[in-house]
């Protein structure tokens, strides 16, 4: 089972940018797709973005497409989420989540390891 | 996008009860459904994948089933540590993963 540790959250003004990081350990990082999932205060879970194991394929929720960019550094076992043009509705705890497989190989799609989350608050 | 409608949103139960949570998909997702448990202030934990396969280490009192586009999570002999919020998630279409709205199981 993997371990995931997010960082980079904080208070940011609307229109601002923030970069989240997720440090992974305990598994062969580049073998698995990774995702970001967020949870607004008192609300449910919302998938945000995914990246394939090699980083060549990415997917985004409609709510963030064009504003957020997911990437990964397999040599350093890190996942990133660059968030631009932030809005109040982006306020949430952002979780880094490990896929059980890699969708480009037809496996996985659900998350067997999660980080503890990092809080992003967008407010003036 | 595939919509996942989860019910009920809140469920009151007692220790020892059997509880059932339902998730209905807006279209066919085959068996590509997972269930998670989340406790306050904690990350979600995978319980079941592929509709009915129990994740390693998850107690056997948790089970999943499916009938068409309706999926069910059943917890038999509810334990104190099972009071939590449960979410379903479809992964039929990887470009648009979606979760159900959640079910809070409370005393």
Could you please describe the fold and organization of this structure?
The complex is a heterodimer of chains A (124) and B (107). Chain A is an all-beta fold. Chain A contains no helices and 11 strands. In chain A, a hairpin with a 4-residue loop joins strand 7 (68-73) and strand 8. Chain A is globular and about 40 Å long. The mean pLDDT of chain A is 95. Chain B is mainly β and 107 residues long. In chain B, 0% of the residues lie in helices and 48% in strands. Chain B has strands spanning 4-7, 10-12, 19-25, 33-38, 45-49, 53-54, 62-67, 70-75, 85-90, 98-99, 103-106. In chain B, strands 2, 4, 5, 6, 9, 10 and 11 form a 7-stranded mixed β-sheet that branches. In chain B, strands 1-3-8-7 form a 4-stranded antiparallel β-sheet, with no helix packed on it. In chain B, strand 7 (62-67) and strand 8 form a beta hairpin. The mean pLDDT of chain B is 96. The A-B interface holds A 35, 44-47, 50, 59, 61-62, 95, 100, 103, 108-112, 114-117 and B 1, 32, 34, 36, 38, 42-46, 49, 55, 87, 89, 91-92, 94-102.
